[in-house]
Amino acid sequence: MQPTNMEPVPTAVMWDESLLRYRFSDTHPMAPVRLELTHALAGHLGVLDAPTVTVLTPPMATDEQLSAVHDADYIQRVREASQLDADGEGLGAERLEEIGLGTDDCPVFSDLHSSSARIAGGSLAAAEALWSGDYQHVVNFAGGMHHAHREKASGFCIYNDAALAIQRMLDLGAERVAYVDLDAHHGDGVESIFWDDPRVLTVSLHETGVALFPGTGFANDIGGTGAEGSAVNVALPAGSNDAAYLRAVHAVVPQLLRAFSPDVLVTQHGCDGHGRDPLADLQLSVDGQRQLMLDARDWAYDYAGDRWLALGGGGYSPFDVVPRAWTHLIAIAAGHPVARAEPLPDAWLALASQRSGMDLDELPETMHDAVDVWWRSWEVGFDPADPTDQSVMATRKAVFPLHGLDPWFD
């Protein structure tokens, strides 16, 4: 399904090779090659050369800017931890553990603070460019660090660029901001930072926390006192495929966005829900993820004045999934979608083979997985015995009445 508004619009893409310095180790799943290959693929396919696309260099966020959503003591400790690799001194193990660092998920490295602040600065600059009206859509595919909390690193995430972008737009005058998280993992950090703020609607559709990190994000998690209904969670069964995930999305997201009427839409497009991703158990295809991007563009147009900030996120299949998915994201945001069956350029395949050590015949050939994306509309009725429908109904019952919606019919 194509959106009804696929016109080219002024679109900014945040990119600089300095973003590749966010690199925990040689073996860490958050491999910067996924960013390198995304940028290269978008370039080889001409997406970045479209007349309405501008590539902007992300600045490094200052400590003052980071403190909009992070504790000053936490920022200082991250700075100190960044010295551990350089001179063998810094925070002790206990002090590291208190802020979520020095773990398998978030080991320290010498560029820890600066590289994290660069990603955060990219989303801050994206928010400012969007709110100023210079661009209608902005993409920061290096962003989407949704697990970072106000005072603690978590899940490969140090500074929460998504929350920083949201807070910046609120500070600039936005009255309501909607955040939709399409990662396989619960967007717990963004949710926790705005838990008590009714101006921010956070919606997360993810593999159930019973089976997957971070173990949170259930239907009865609805926001703090005075902000009930501002947090929305759909915890999907492990193994959910395109049809199940898209059914859940379309049974919850557009209804809430219509009721909330945000000034701007922020979406997180972690592609770790793909069936080949090693860190989650969902079974989405690139085709299904592409459909979610088309849907997000429609939501921005229909409900948020066509202001859309799109972020990356998780994604740990860096050679055959992430570059294809996020190249689709950039192209769709710009209004120049890449055909699903578009062949992957030979030059890009050669680069991917070189970076991965894989033979060419081990890499995908086209921009899609040749999956027929279809889902059963919620309007045709729900099946109380179906696990997906059970999750959806639990969420609708918990939050729809708080937005003036009927959980049975809207």
From TrEMBL:
Domain of life: Bacteria
UniProt cross-references to InterPro entries, sorted A to Z: AcuC, HDACs, His_deacetylse_dom, His_deacetylse_dom_sf, Ureohydrolase_dom_sf
CDD domains in the record: HDAC_AcuC_like (cd09994)
Pathway given in the UniProt record: Ketone degradation; acetoin degradation
Keyword terms: Acetoin catabolism
Any Pfam family hit: Hist_deacetyl
Residues annotated as domain Histone deacetylase: 28-331
Gene3D superfamilies reported for this sequence: Histone deacetylase domain
Presence of keyword 4Fe-4S: no
Family as reported in the entry's similarity comment: Belongs to the histone deacetylase family.
Name assigned to this protein: Acetoin utilization protein AcuC
Species for this entry: Citricoccus muralis
